[in-house]
Amino acid sequence: MARFTVRESPPLRGEVRIGTSKNAVLPIMAAALLTKEEVRIKSPPQLSDVHTLLEVLRDCGCETETQEGQLLLRAGTIGSPGGYECMRRMRASVLVMGPLLAREGQAQVTLPGGCAIGQRPIDQHLKGMAALGAEISMEHGGVLLRGRLHGATIYLDMPSVGATENLMMAACLADGTTRIENAAKEPEIVDLAMCLCEMGGHVSGAGTSTLTIEGVKTMHGTQYTPITDRIEAGTMACAAALTGGDLLLTGARSDHLRALLFKLTEAGVHAADTPEGLRVRGRAQHPMEIRTMAYPGFPTDLQAPMMVLCCQTPGTSVFLETIFENRYMHAAELARMGARIRVEDRVAIVEGVKALTGAQVRATDLRAGASLLLAGLCAQGETLVEDDGGHIDRGYERIEEKLRAVGADINRVREKAPGYSEF
Predict the structure, then answer these.
(1) Do residues 288 and 310 touch, judged by C-beta distance below 8 A?
(2) Are strands 177-181 and 153-155 parallel, antiparallel or unpaired?
(3) Helix axes 230-243 and 303-311, enclosed angle (nearest 10)
(4) pTM of the model
(5) Which of 203, 248, 267, 411 has the fewest beta carbons closer than 10 A?
(6) Residue 114 above 60 pLDDT?
(7) Which sequence positions are flagged as catalytic?
(8) What is the full DSSP assignment across 13-65?
(9) If you average pLDDT over residues 14-38, what whole number do you get?
């Protein structure tokens, strides 16, 4: 779908405006199915994942429109999506399950796809829906849920972000009070809860391990501005540290990036809050030990960019990936560029080298693709990043333009991914 050429670049300097969070806007889009009234989302990111979910919402009967930088969603008469391909392409498509079931008493969804970074079952979603009173059956490669939902106490075996979001939305229209224990705490969870409350829902405890949702009869429309993308901000912070640059990440929130900023500071990189956002400057000087964990721990989505940073940091860095079992696929591609990485099960040991060298590499998933672009910024010669799956455009809006504006030698030399154009 896309191909990028990257050459060794000078220290990146200037301002990068951080876009709206993909992982925040997708559940908020799904939440529009909870009401017949119009939901307006301000500054939606131009990402292929957003376009994919728009297709799913239209398939559910939701009307979509763009107007003056806003996404307008009107879910008057709705039903389960019939399109297999859109549901299969993106894991977040399963988020329509909860709103459909709660509002219509029935939801039929195809099992979702997404990046091939490991097992990502939806059993936590289904166990929670069953606790709320849904009858569940598997048929024709999908899931059929039926029933009038009622409040319940739900314990999640793991703090799944998607399951927390799906169950929180479903519980908004359930009879009685629902309590979700061991809930995810990510900023995107808090953002969804705030949006649901503005739509007339009663959600408390967001940002803690216990959520309480008091069901209401109906919900109404709203206009909402989602948070900025902490993963894009973290990726750009790594780009600054990798090149020894000085970047102002406008709109970035340091309170969403504590784990990353602690690690960058330990490595000798300077990071400071400003009225406009986050300023990151300097080059990493010391190796790191990183263990990915659920929020507020170190985010798995920033493991790949940080590994690139460690490839050129003196000493031995150690990574432990606890979230996904197959998230080191970028290590083999970085090795083609001269990186010294040894992977043993969920542990990766990185020996810093003086210089990487340009090579032809392949984006295996979204965050791996972005990390290879970063690697090209500090590699001698030219790096060609092949992204036949269109992974990078799923989560980074015009990343090559943003990097080029602050001094990177990067170009897109093949067509954009489907859905890359404006809404």
Answers:
(1) yes
(2) parallel
(3) 0
(4) 0.94
(5) 411
(6) no
(7) 115
(8) EEEEE--B-HHHHHHHHHHGGG-SSEEEEES----HHHHHHHHHHHHTT-EEE
(9) 98
